[in-house]
Design brief:
mainly alpha
Length: about 130
């Protein structure tokens, strides 16, 4: 019954929230359902997933989500710039261990930045598909 109520609320909310909200609510529902099927559930994580879904159902705005993504991209770009700077300094020092560590940090920062940009593009595509 509770699951059916959440689905109904999700449908109603997605009608008013927009394509991005609909996508985010669906992601949250799928994640919650997948987690509930796990044999050993952490009650704290289960509650977090339920709270996230409820939060989206109560209030979701496509524009706010895009603003959050843009802010996250800016922080990832800053982290990438810092990682590139650290790598350049390590290369100047010639310390192989520092170069190795800085290279790993740079690769991670670059992957996170790319993932954030891909998420932004995915969300913007949702807006194009549903004018």
């Amino acid at each position: 019954m509770k699951c059916a109520t959440l689905l109904l609320l999700g449908l109603v909310s997605s009608l008013y929230g927009g394509a991005i909200c609909e996508y985010k609510i669906k992601q949250a529902q799928d994640g919650l359902e997948a987690y509930m099927q796990k044999p050993h559930k952490d009650p704290h994580k289960l509650q977090e997933a339920q709270d996230e879904l409820n939060s989206l159902l109560k209030h979701c705005d496509d524009r706010e989500i895009l603003e959050e993504v843009a802010s996250y991209i800016a922080s990832m770009k800053s982290a990438l710039t810092h990682a590139n700077s650290t790598l350049a300094q390590a290369k100047e020092s010639g310390d192989k261990s520092a170069i190795h560590q800085a290279t790993l940090a740079q690769k991670i920062a670059q992957a996170q930045y790319i993932a954030a940009r891909q998420e932004e593009l995915r969300l913007k595509d949702l807006l194009k598909d549903n004018p």
